[in-house]
Amino acid sequence: MSSVLIVCRGNWDTCTEIPYILKKGGYSRVDIYCSDQSWLICNKFYDTWYKSETSDQKFIEGLRGVLNQHPYDWVILGDEIALNLFNHEIKTDSEFLKIMPLTKPEHRWVLSSKIGLSRFCKKNNIPCPGYQVYGKESDCEKIKNDLRFPVVIKADFGWGGDGMFISETYDTFVRAIHKLPVHKHVLVQEYIEGTEFPVEALFSNGKLLMYQTSSIRKFSGHRFSFTTQRDYFPCPDLKDYLEDLGEKLGLNGFTSIGYMFDPRDGTYNLIEVDMRPNSWTAMGRFLSPDLLDAIRYLSEKNPAVPFQQKGMKNKTKHLALFYKDFRRAYWEKDWKTVVWWIFDVKGFWRYIPFYDSKLLRKVTFSIFNEIFLAYKAKYFPRKTKP
Asked: Taking the C-alpha atoms of 346, 352, 354 and 357 in order, what is their torsion angle to the nearest 10 degrees?
């Protein structure tokens, strides 16, 4: 009997389909630990819901209590808030290995830290863009002398593209200093004018089980916001990069990785590693190789038999996220895509969660409620007292 616990601290929609793929992949028990406001409870495929408390300390104590009662085979921290919280809280290697998505506690400083990832890459000879850390105005001279512009500025702890912007020249960087958080270090990284390759991968004890590579069709907003449409295709060139990364870092679990291909030297530069599932993770069931094959291997708990990833079919597959992409298309007045969703053009209905009535109700209600409230505010504004 194989068991897994999914833990969410924030109220994100990214993990709503994860219980479904874990069940389909052979896990007999899929439990969740989250608040009553979490999207994670809006599906029919979990077995037990452990309600979390509001405060950080009670959230931590509650999870420890659950883990003391049930020795799960796999604990999945489903958002950056939970990752950051437990990374700061856990003091022993034994507890770290039980909860966190790394098998090498000595690399915990990389978790949720863009600065930490860049330093790790430099230390371990992993290709990544040149960078400097900005903490005070006196750092500007080093940035000017050592980096090639344009540069991208990234808040050390953030997600969804928040706290990121590009400076084309040194002068524009200096003028934009007021945008940077006070008394906090930020990463200033060379911006490579190349092609970005998002990768969804699954690792087990530092070993790469499988990966799925894509290019971006649509962003939800600016170029650093989350994506809503992607093209997936085979990319054997990345296999060695991923195997090297997994072994050196000790990756263990679902991992979302970003590479930027530099056409000047033909190198794939590592720009992002999120050690958690995201909305695209569950979409791996529509691809070949199928993500469910790798999950099934983990659920069978037979490490003596190595996992054999099947080759991906040599063609490109267009995937889209219903909830995120329909909202994007509607508010951007991308009526062509709205029609695709309504009338199943290009087979888009495959990506609507008809298999789960509970999740479908949540998604459709959220979309129409958002539209209704926006129109209500526009055409029937609340009257203010004189």
From this structure: -160
How many CA atoms lie less than 13 Å away from 292 in the CB half-sphere? 15
Q: State the Cα–Cα distance between residues 146 and 71, nearest whole angstrom.
A: 49
Residue 121 lies in a domain: no
| pTM reported for the whole predicted model | 0.94
Q: With a cut of 70, which residues of the chain have pLDDT below it? A: 159-163, 182-183, 304, 310-313, 383-386
Say if residue 165 is in the same domain as residue 206: no
Query: CB atoms < 10 A from the CB of 70, how many?
Result: 13
Residue 266: inside a domain? yes
Domain of residue 92, residue span: 3-100
pLDDT at residue 79, as a whole number: 95
In a shared domain, residues 279 and 292: yes
Q: How many CA atoms lie within 13 A of 284 on its CB side?
A: 33
Q: How many structural domains compose the chain?
A: 4
Q: What is the pLDDT of residues 129-158, one digit of tens each?
A: 999 999 888 899 999 999 999 999 998 887
